[in-house]
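Page 37, continued from 36.
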């Protein structure tokens, strides 16, 4: 395959065609619906580039209001860790910070967790998933089964994110994420996991909204903050979850 924008777009288009057929999507939406109808909040976490997918779930125009984003930086913003901790290149591999992130979060019993990690093997995501399940929460993973199967876990238990989740959404990214091989082998370009994981997140949200509509409920959905009355609409809905959802930069 050549290195061209057309080839990359073709790869992405192929994935976009097949991903909506995943039978795990309605299963994930059922867990979303279960949590929301019980008064729960969707707690989304991703490290590295996977944080972009957590942002797609939490606080997004056209998305669900009862959503909260957890992040590595919470140990500084909401905890007492020094700012220098965020300069660690291996921070997402450290399982010990998962408990701090979770303990700092405004979590309640009916909350559902979505953990996003392309590899699904780094210490913080595996430990966070372990703690979430120990505390009795439902857990959805968005990950690459191909990549996860090809590498060893970096968690002391040897487990991976996909081993712990109630529902696993496969973003279908290849091992290494990028889809276009450079001449001579070695590196590749054209990562796809952010695109496909965001698509999965949106499909789950849309199916959840459909579930709520079919149950006769009014889905709590954000307006864009950049349309008239957007702020007033959003603040009114957010007030229903005061102290449970964080909205920041």
């Amino acid at each position: 395959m050549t290195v061209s924008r057309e080839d990359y777009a073709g790869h992405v288009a192929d994935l976009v065609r097949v991903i909506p057929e995943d039978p795990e999507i309605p299963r994930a939406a059922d867990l979303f619906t279960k949590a929301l109808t019980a008064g729960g909040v969707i707690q989304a976490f991703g490290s590295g580039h996977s944080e972009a997918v957590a942002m797609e779930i939490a606080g997004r125009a056209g998305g669900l209001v009862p959503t909260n984003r957890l992040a590595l930086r919470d140990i500084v913003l909401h905890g007492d860790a020094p700012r220098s901790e965020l300069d660690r290149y291996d921070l997402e591999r450290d399982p010990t910070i998962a408990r701090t992130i979770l303990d700092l979060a405004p979590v309640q019993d009916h909350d559902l967790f979505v953990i996003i990690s392309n590899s699904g093997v780094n210490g913080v995501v595996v430990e966070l998933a372990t703690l979430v399940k120990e505390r009795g929460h439902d857990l959805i993973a968005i990950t690459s089964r191909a990549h996860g199967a090809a590498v060893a876990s970096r968690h002391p238990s040897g487990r991976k994110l996909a081993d712990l989740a109630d529902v696993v959404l496969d973003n279908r990214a290849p091992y290494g994420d990028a889809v276009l091989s450079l001449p001579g082998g070695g590196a590749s370009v054209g990562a796809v996991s952010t695109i496909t994981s965001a698509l999965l997140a949106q499909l789950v949200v849309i199916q959840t909204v459909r579930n709520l509509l079919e149950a006769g409920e009014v889905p709590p959905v954000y307006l864009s903050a950049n349309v008239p009355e957007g702020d007033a609409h959003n603040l009114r809905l957010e007030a229903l979850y005061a102290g449970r959802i964080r909205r920041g930069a």
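The chain has one domain: 5-241. Flag for discussion at group meeting. The beta strands are 42-46, 67-70, 112-116, 139-143, 167-170, 178-181, 188-191.
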